[in-house]
Design a protein that fits this description.
- The radius of gyration is 22 Å and the shape is globular.
- The chain is about 75% helix and about 0% strand.
- It is an all-alpha fold and about 475 residues long.
- The two termini are about 35 Å apart.
- The longest helix has about 35 residues.
- It has a single domain, classed as Amino acid/polyamine transporter I (Up-down Bundle).
- It is found in: Membrane.
């Protein structure tokens, strides 16, 4: 009797898009980060989100084209391996684990702090953050333990709720005409080409983190050659346009002349003040609750992505084989999920024991290297695309296989520089702490290179099959021309 596997043909385009958009946590990003973007970049801040969206859409062209030829469940590291070789691919695998775990585990601090803030704002009670974060770990474990379609349904409901409250805010502002009438000054070059735009771009790129995880669900997707690219483009387009639209409407709520002052005075309360004035206090109360559910949705989406990375690396022989077990009923990578929850609990409890602040330290310090790690993976994947396609005959166009990936690589390199240069915006830490946080990314990558050469020497069979195509191939998803393996 064969071992159970992930449930194939389960996820449609909308399901995968829900996972990706939920990971980005639109409500949390808007209410928590957009005021800082306005404060730093002025009324031209919405354009920063559009520029980030365009850059990632260009990246998605080559990335999704390559997805038709790479059927491995390893997502980023499989793509990088095919283009840049196994040593870089193995290093990328470790970097992916740092990136996705960093983006998820830090958010347990945000869950604790936002829940505490919500309880205080709505009911005037003070609750400690640690029990909330630990309860969140249990909820996310259960969500990941259940089948992938269960997770998709949960995320669909939560995503509709959190985007709905932002649409309600925008509608209230536009119907009322804003503070000084509706203005398009945000899109004028004079308000976009200002020194603060670099900082806005750094905030904007961070708001898209995790959008590329569509390919992680390839093995569970229906007709993955179509659903994965569609979900990727939908996620990028939705996030870019929606972020820009919401930020622009909030600027209208306060007026071009006053919004920067309002954001500087009370960044955390900017969205709540706007929705209270234009919709009502009941909507502000609802927004408080939906921020908590937005954080939970982001945690579940990242948790599912991490589980599938762990499963893939266990199947490769890089991680312990036990992590590759799939639940016979729910068809979920439940052992990898449990291991990830244990890791999260250790880190959360460690920060609490050290007396750390759940937001300023657990969230920001753990998220920062995670975000930089995922951005570096995007850059490596963009570089890998043209190198992959030059190795064999294929029917893909030159724009998709060369021009778009090269342009994306240049733009992503600029984005990484901007984020690194403004890393204090994300970490809120001292120069020493920032140096440590940024240095974690190259340190993990170099550790991965060392692991690759050790595997090649001590476990050549594991090294040789790393990121290999599944065998036998699935006729429904096989590429038109055979892809060569790298050495």
């Amino acid at each position: 009797m064969s071992a159970p596997t992930l449930r194939r043909g389960t996820l449609g385009t909308a399901d995968i898009a829900f996972f990706v958009i939920s990971a980005a946590a639109p409500l949390t990003v808007m209410a928590g980060v957009a005021p800082i973007a306005i404060m730093l970049g002025g009324i031209g801040a919405p354009v920063g989100y559009l520029l980030a969206g365009v850059t990632l859409a260009i990246f998605a062209i080559g990335f999704t084209t390559m997805s038709r030829h790479v059927r491995s469940g390893g997502a980023f590291y499989a793509y990088i391996t095919r283009g840049l070789g196994r040593p870089v691919g193995i290093a990328a695998a470790l970097l992916a684990m740092l990136g996705y775990n960093g983006m998820e585990i830090g958010v347990y601090g945000l869950l604790g702090s936002t829940t505490a803030d919500t309880a205080h704002a709505l009911w005037g009670i003070d609750i400690p953050w640690l029990p909330v974060s630990l309860a969140g770990l249990l909820l996310i474990w259960y969500g990941g333990f259940r089948s992938i379609d269960f997770g998709a349904k949960v995320l669909g409901v939560l995503l509709v709720a959190e985007t709905g409250i932002l649409v309600l805010l925008a509608g209230g502002v536009l119907l009322d005409g804003g503070a000084d009438g509706i203005s398009l000054a945000s899109f004028a070059p004079g308000h976009v080409l200002v020194p603060g735009t670099a900082a806005v771009l750094a905030c904007a790129f961070a708001a898209f983190t995790g959008f590329e995880s569509t390919v992680i669900y390839r093995r569970e997707a229906r007709n993955p050659d179509r659903t994965v690219p569609r979900a990727t483009y939908i996620a990028v387009a939705f996030l870019g346009l929606f972020y820009a639209f919401v930020v622009w409407t909030v600027i209208q709520a306060f007026g071009d002349a006053d919004v920067v002052r309002a954001a500087t005075t009370d960044p955390g309360g900017l969205f709540f003040s706007a929705i209270t004035h234009y919709v009502g206090s009941w909507a502000a109360d609802l927004m408080h609750i939906l921020i908590v559910t937005s954080v939970l949705a982001s945690l579940l989406a990242f948790h599912n992505a991490i589980n599938r990375y762990g499963l893939a690396l266990a199947e490769e022989g890089v991680l312990p084989a036990a992590l590759g077990r799939v639940h016979p009923r729910h068809r979920s990578p439940y052992v990898a999920g449990l291991a990830q929850i244990v890791l999260g609990a250790v880190i959360v409890i460690g920060f609490a024991a050290a007396g750390a602040d759940p937001y300023a330290q657990l969230l920001l310090w753990v998220n920062t290297p995670g975000m930089l790690g995922l951005m570096l993976l995007q850059l490596l994947a963009a570089i890998a695309v043209p190198l992959f396609f030059r190795r064999f005959a294929h029917g893909e166009g030159r724009f998709r296989t060369v021009v778009a990936p090269v342009v994306a690589a240049v733009l992503l390199a600029v984005a990484i520089f901007l984020v690194t240069d403004h890393v204090d915006l994300f970490s809120g830490a001292s120069t020493t702490v920032n140096t440590v946080l940024v240095s974690l990314v190259p340190a993990v990558f170099l550790t991965g290179l060392a692991l690759a050469y050790r595997l090649k020497r001590d476990k050549p069979e594991v090294y040789a099959r790393f990121a290999a195509e599944p065998s036998p191939p699935d006729p429904a998803t096989a590429p038109a021309a055979p892809a060569s393996t790298t050495v």
